[in-house]
Amino acid sequence: MIEPSASRFVTAPDGLKLHVRAYGPRTAAAMPVVCLPGLARTAADFDTLAAALAGDPERPRYVLAMDYRGRGQSEYDRRPANYSFTVELADMLAVLSALEVPPAVLIGTSRGGILSMLLAAVRPTAMRGVVLNDIGPVIETRGLVRIKSYVGRLPEPKDYEDGAEILRRLFAAQFPKLTADDWLTFARRTFQERNGRLLPNYDAKLAKSLQGIDLERPLPALWNEFDALARLPLMVVRGANSDVLSAATVAAMQARRPDIEAVEVADQGHTPLLTEPGIIRRIGAFVARCESESRH
Is 189 a domain residue? Predict the structure, then answer.
């Protein structure tokens, strides 16, 4: 059963309006789930997964998916410097507080996974488990350079079909098995109609947050932030074609956390879409385990 979503709006600490998609009954007894998208992505990426978790016939859940500032239906910031982890973490805390979200399982895609690790460092009591979707403590610079090459620089499509073709040309090497319908769905989640034009679903000034990325300067590793998750159940999902999370980093994570549940998604890159029944079942079972362990 597809559970319809409802929009919620929360005021950030600096007054900016933030948008959150809510799925399922607010009063659901089951542990809630909070979904955090990638850098230039939106809450809509979680529609299929969130609807499945919220509409589970045995254990319906309240699921929230967040649009960061400058993305989706959240307000754009006049100061692009605020598209930062520090500000977005404060925004996330404001959302959890305003919507009175009990301790939840976080599903963090890429940037959302980094925010999950940062939240574990500052507010571990807000969490009962974490799914890191194609992100880890070591972030491959070449993948970030690839992302930098298109964020804020996408051509303007004539229509959604043209948008689908633009995205297919960009990402087909990472997602070789997607169908024409899949690319069209991807386009509808990437572009939005504004004043008769199809524009990216994010503030183009977001590109400024990537200015410092350079192949010659790898990012510092986030092992301390990863270690903040030590007391929480942890799952890592990696796209087999990912150029952001390497198989070697997943192995290093497993060496540090032998209890980590690791899943590799075939024929997908950065980031796995989390829309196939198999991965939805795995995530659903992981969330249920987090709930069971939190009772003991």
Answer: no
- Write down the pTM of the prediction: 0.96
**Over residues 124-137, mean pLDDT:** 97
Enclosing domain of residue 287: 5-142+220-294
What's the rounded mean pLDDT across residues 16-27? 96
| Confidence grade of residue 1 (pLDDT, cut at 50, 70, 90) | very low
Q: Long-range pairs for 114-118 at CB < 8 Å and ≥24 separation?
A: 114/85, 114/222, 114/225, 115/36, 115/85, 115/88, 115/89, 116/36, 116/229, 117/222, 117/225, 117/226, 117/228, 117/229, 118/85, 118/89, 118/225
Let me know if residue 285 belongs to a domain.
Answer: yes
Total number of domains in the chain: 1
Tell me if 9 is assigned to some domain.
Answer: yes
Please check the confidence at residue 157 and state whether its pLDDT lies above 90.
Answer: yes
